[in-house]
Amino acid sequence: METARRMTEDEKERELLAECRRGNRRAFAELYEMHQRRVFSVALNFFGGQHARAEDVTQQVFLKIFNSLDSFRGDSQISTWIYRLTVNACIDERRRGWTFLPIGEFVETLLFRRTPVDAYNRREVTAEVRTAIGQLKEPFKMPIILRYSEGLSYEEIARVLDCTAGTVASRISRGHQILAKKLRHLRSEV
Amino acid sequence: MKVHYQEKMAAFVDHELNADEHREIAEHILLCSDCRKLHDEVKLGASLSAFAGRVDAPREVWDRIESALNQPAEVDARKSTLMFRFAAAAIFLFIGVAAIATLVYRSKTPALGLRPAETADVADQPAVNNSPDKLPRTVDNEIARIGATPQEEPRPRPSVEKVVIPNDPKSRRRPEMQSAAVTRNLRVEKAGWNVDILGEGKANDGLPDTSKLGVGETLETNELSRAVVEVADIGRVEMEPNSRLRLIETRSSRHRIALDRGKMKAKIFAPPRIFVVETPTATAVDLGCEYTLEVDGDGNTRLHVTGGFVSLERAGRATIVPSGAVALTRKGKDVGTPFADDASEAFVEALSRVDFTDYSDKSLRDVLTTARVKDSISLWHLLSRVRAKERGEVFDALSERVKPPRNVTRAGVLTLEKAMLDDWWLLIEENWYE
Predict the structure, then answer these.
(1) CA atoms of B349 and B351, how far apart (whole Å)
(2) Which residue, of A145, B26, B104, B155, is most buried by count of CB atoms within 10 Å of its CB?
(3) Exposed e or buried b per residue across B402-411, where buried means at least 16 C-beta atoms within 10 angstroms of its C-beta
(4) pTM score above 0.80
């Protein structure tokens, strides 16, 4: 059933892609709607919850998709292709280095760092987890995001990151150990 | 510390290994304290990572994308403007050169009889039509003309939406706004979960399309069939035969179903408290986990957690059930005390008496005397469930199995001091996974 459903989704996406290639902007809007959540979520977690940077990456990824529709040969699933673009865009964005945060986000970051207890009171465990994930080194960070935010299997993650499932498992193990040490005070939250 | 399964521990926790490998590591963990520690760390990391979750991009992002997609047209327009200016300048230069050449030629050919003033008029004629001060206005008009007619410059990527290069910047916002509306509509249209009915399943009359389960609709399996339901994009539910399930609510922040009867297995990848199952006697709130829920003809519920945690709630009281534990509910009673899925029959039977049928000194004593170290989770829960006069007895039994941390005192526990109970729980939980 799972396979059948995926095929159907994939077929629908491929039809959408064909429409997009013909310049149908509404089809592109629909493609955006189908994938915006995964692109934005990956970027948001990658940048430790910084919305502004996640928005920038989402914009870059979809413009890249629009401009490289012809280069998608269909060897992999569309979602895999989009994840790859997202991973690359995140890395490129990070290489650009320091950026201005919107003032609200900046203030919130400061508050959050200074008074974590208040943050919990505001039910912002999620924010702290995102921050910790965002601070992981890239090899550990992306597999964890793709697994726990996106629900991808180790095989799927391996395809996106172009490595083996064993490498994925090893990196996730190591990443979890780091997270557990950093966030052990949140133990009661899980 | 010597860890033997560093590479595979996450795969073990995430159930990504084959059955043999999984069993091998599970058995090893029982014997190797270092790997047990690693397992606990990885499991904690995995549980916390589930908080990361997924989020929709703000609507403005699409607006920005649309705006950016429109820019190439403007770039083209700017390119055409430059080309036009270049061509006009070239024509102007050519005519100017031609005029000068003519003038020079004519000055050398007085036989034509032209007066100098006439010569100047002829030379000025084209220059008037292409004068630099007139040129920008002409270009602007040209841009406006291109924008106003369908015969615009072909864009690198054709679009069914006509690209208008406006005179008024406000008008440029219209197509973007239309597309944003389309986007919003698409969001609204997302309703219903994919369903696959296996065997000779049947769907109620209320379910118009067997491939989708919409809000308010009911899915029912008969004695021969099962069904697999995709829970939006956060997991799946497998319905066993003779089960009835209703979809009550589905949105990004909350997915709620009701299991009226039968049995279901849920596997959910979502932040805590997003997925909720109502049964006739309790509410199971997912805290990032995998579990089985069973409801009998009387509405009694049995929850068996096989991964993560579930909060089983009733009448404002929540019982956290960890992986490897079972909790029961009975009509008109509080949620039962959770117990290990491998607890002895005698222990389970005694606990059931305490919880549901015969709360007596004897029943409580039977629970305390048949409890193993692993049954400490049940004893810990009993601390707040038994009467105050019996609490000391439970404290002693629990202390014998898991020694309380230094800061946890008998007096504090007897008055149910939350911080102490929490600290003790952490120790009990560690033992639980060992």
Answers:
(1) 5
(2) A145
(3) bebeeebeee
(4) no
